[in-house]
Amino acid sequence: MTFTPFKLERYFAQHEFTARYLLCSSDPESMSVSDLLAYEPGSSEGLARTWLGYTEYPGAPALRVQLAKELYTATQSDQIIVHTGAQEAIYSFMNAVLEPGDHLIVHMPGYQSHYSTAQDRGLAVTPWMARESSGWALDIDELATLIRPETKALVVCFPHNPTGYLPSTDEFDAIIEFARRHGLMLFSDEVYRGLELDPAHRLPAACDVYERAVSLGALAKSHGLAGLRIGWVATRDREVLRRMSLFKDYLTISNSAPSEYLATIAVRQTDALTRRATDITRANLQVLDTFFARHEAMFEWRKPLAGTIAFPRLRNLSAYEFCETLLEQTGVLLLPSTLLDYGDANFRIGFGRKNLPQILPIVDDYLGKPGGTR
Q1: Which tens digit of pLDDT belongs to each residue from 63-112?
Q2: Which of 5, 171, 274, 352 is least crowded, fewest Cβ atoms below 10 Å from its Cβ?
């Protein structure tokens, strides 16, 4: 079996745990187990009683019930499969549901497993490129020029990684209508859903409004609990559920019982945890607005609408060289766009961590030194 190296993860494997300052993390501020348990009195005892045997393969019933109750309106608990993180769920969908020779339309720039996994499987992939000059918006009319007779699915990510773009309700409805009209599956990565700066802009889960949609969720982003390694798919498409259930038998089979117990608490506390994250992101974006206004001669800044990451552009500079030199000189880690298959002018910056206001002055100081813009 051949597979394409995951460039972002290889970069993080090299730098994430050695860099002094992380300024490109995609997950928001996390917490300790005791912090999470404090949301529900008596939960510590429940964790201590958790049985360490195998769990049910689609996920603990209590967790799936809670996911359906808190996050979806038309999708039921038996239409959810819990995975060990979102990455496993993406891999399962691409391998279990699609076949070599099928064609995908994929929202890009984006998360590499949305397209590399499919390409390694023998699928053809056509990018549906976001338009940077239009605030990372998508051209809905362009979809008609991208579809082929062998197109089986459309892959989107809202709120978007890495730009923080969020379509309007009308634009989202038009995407749904296009998929329905052409009988396409819609794989909707919704791991940042719930982190909208304005809750009024929140889109419905795709699986609730389209019968052939597959919604991807995870606790890493929306709830700030990456260490639990809990992701899931929700869909009313019975054939997708059947195929992904069979394929999961060759992956983790079942999930971690302690993680599922803690995840159930987290999902019950969705409002509190997403509010905790967005309180941080709103404050940090004010700091970033000031920072980029101060350095507008060097950067183009498009403020995101949701999520925990943005994708600024450097004016007349290589993003890869800028990020490499910044890391060498200051210990601050940013993510160049070359690792996201999008030219060499942008970089990913994360604004979901509490320490951003302490890190930005280090970048400020660097930019003020001779050679700091090289």
Answers
A1: 999 999 999 999 999 999 999 999 999 999 999 999 999 999 999 999 99
A2: 5
